[in-house]
Specification:
3 domains; 16 helices; alpha+beta; Enterococcus faecalis V583 fold
Length: 465
């Protein structure tokens, strides 16, 4: 102690970074500790969860076992009305947690209007808007029907959907066919060219792919995703490798089963020209996987993250079908020429199921090229993924990251760790214009909002009492 004041002063700063800046200005050597206080939650729930730690750990082991052992395979296609659980002719599904017409954001309203015209329920946007506002159509989250939809996520009765099966548990999931980027229905566009493309996808693309998939019996999506991660995808915003791998499997089957050469050429060219075609399948694969961990009493693992452009909602394995909701945030984005953040709609889409399922933002370190699309650097991609290990229960046993010496992707978001460490799940995403009818205006990244996780933590504590 007598020599303490004779030594050079060194400081570890745990507080505001501005304190370290002040020390640097005076020449004092310091180290900034990356630390934040935990998120505020209900004290009784916190005590209950701490006292049930062993029970939660056992439940989480069961949930992680279900997630790790899931094997999602593409087994077929069908019309939404024919194959989706509890689907109705007057029902339109949407992304994210439940929402009413009055609270829907611009791009979701635009997609609903486009779906009305596509189904023949309205002749134009004005008539569609009037009928939607009248209560003629019932709205329901895709997630309530074992389905997922990117961005606005609208699924109407006539739309073709992929059918994915988890062969480990036998549960199914569903997703639409991907339209491509830009001015498309899922981003809220509903012009004539959008409807014409959707009709072509129903009348030509769907039956062609259906026949090809049935001839193959099943396509192993988990294997494709694992390979795509090694080839530079994170299978949310970058799907070039996943689409290419799918194309190699399905193209010979299309050639073998499609008798109309013109249809065959157009279908193969459409998939080849749409790098995001695999996105909807990666989402369905993650949905199928995460649903296998639902309703595990006491588990703190997040099974759903979804956004409707107004709200951000999550579900936990240990709280069943209950939604925990908070306001959706605006992404930090790179915008297309002519657009700015003032044009952007808050975060939207079911595609955050990829992050929930250990992909997307969780696997950014596999996709250095994606930072050119969403902003940032290769070092950022590594940092994003490494931080996600802090809030997850396991490393994936199949999905691996080459740049991290083939370490498994962060798997099983644990709401307890999110609260304790004040680290929120990282998501990369497309950005829709806030007004209906415009479409995509950019792509970016953001962290999930804290409120849904705080609500979920509190409710888990109540259920454990």
């Amino acid at each position: 102690m007598s020599n303490l004041f004779e030594q050079k002063l060194k400081v570890v700063n745990i507080g505001l970074e501005s304190f370290q800046d002040a020390l640097a200005q005076t020449g004092v050597e310091s180290l900034q500790m990356d630390w934040k206080p935990s998120l505020p939650v209900d004290l009784e729930s916190q005590k209950t969860i701490q006292s049930h730690k062993e029970k939660i750990e056992i439940a989480n082991e069961k949930a992680i076992h279900c997630i790790q052992n899931a094997k999602p395979v593409l087994i077929g296609m069908g019309k939404a009305l024919d194959v989706l659980p509890n689907m109705k002719k007057n029902m339109f599904l949407h992304a994210g947690p439940p929402i009413t017409w009055e609270r829907m954001c611009g791009p979701m309203k635009g997609a609903m209007m486009g779906a009305m015209i596509y189904e023949g329920y309205a002749q134009d946007a004005k008539e569609a808007e009037q009928k939607l506002a009248s209560g003629e159509i019932e709205f329901s989250p895709c997630h309530e029907h074992s389905a997922v939809g990117p961005m606005a996520g609208v699924i109407s009765p006539s739309m073709p959907v992929f059918i994915v099966k988890n062969t480990d548990k036998g549960n199914l999931s569903f997703s639409t066919q991907n339209e491509g980027l830009g001015k498309v229905l899922r981003y809220g566009a509903y012009s004539e060219d959008v409807i014409v493309r959707l009709k072509w996808m129903e009348e030509i693309l769907y039956p062609t792919l259906k026949a090809a998939i049935e001839s193959l019996k099943e396509i192993d999506l988990k294997s494709i995703i694992a390979q795509a991660l090694h080839m530079g995808d994170e299978v949310h915003n970058r799907n070039r490798a996943g689409t290419s791998l799918l194309y190699r499997i399905i193209a010979p089957a299309v050639i073998a089963t499609c008798e109309n050469k013109d249809h065959m050429v157009k279908v193969l060219n459409f998939i080849n020209g749409n790098d995001h075609f695999f996105l909807n399948l990666s989402m369905a694969a993650c949905k199928c996987t995460m649903d296998s961990a639902m309703n595990i009493e006491g588990s703190s693992i997040v099974t759903v993250m979804a956004r409707n452009g107004t709200d951000f909602g999550i579900k936990l394995a240990g709280t069943g079908s209950q939604w925990f909701v908070g306001p959706a945030d605006l992404p930090d984005a790179l915008f297309f020429p002519g657009f700015t953040k003032a044009d952007a709609n808050p975060d939207i889409g079911d595609s955050a199921i990829t992050e929930t399922g250990a992909l997307g933002g969780m696997a950014m370190a596999s996709a250095f090229a994606i930072v050119q699309f969403v902003g940032g650097t290769a070092a950022d991609a590594l940092r994003y993924t490494n931080e996600m290990y802090e809030i997850t229960a396991a490393e994936n046993n199949v999905y691996q990251i080459p740049s991290l010496d083939f370490k498994g992707t962060p798997t099983g978001i644990d709401v307890r760790l999110v609260i304790e460490k004040n680290i929120l799940p990282f998501i990369n995403t497309g950005v829709a214009h806030k007004d209906p009818g415009v479409g995509q205006v950019g792509a970016g990244v953001l962290s999930a909002p804290a409120l849904p996780f705080q609500k979920a933590f509190n409710e888990l504590g109540k259920k454990l009492k």
